[in-house]
Amino acid sequence: MKLNLLPPYVSKGKQSKVAIVLMLLILLASIAASLGMMFVSKQAYEREKARADALEKPANDVVALSKLADTITASAQTVVLNVELAKAMQEHCSAYPDFYDSVRRYIPAFFRVTSMSASPMDAETVTLTLSGVIKSQEEYANLMLALNRIPDVRSVSRSGFQLVETYVPNLTQTDQTGRPIRQGEQPLPDDPLDRLQALIARGSTASGGYLGVGNFGSGEPGLRGAMPDWSQITVTVVMPGKLQAPDVRATLANAARASSSTGTTGSMPTGMGGFGPPGGMGSFGPPGGLGMGGPAGLREED
Question: 148-152: long-range contacts at Cβ-Cβ below 8 A with a sequence spacing of 24 or more?
Answer without folding.
Answer: 149/106, 150/103, 150/106, 150/237, 150/239, 151/240, 152/239, 152/240
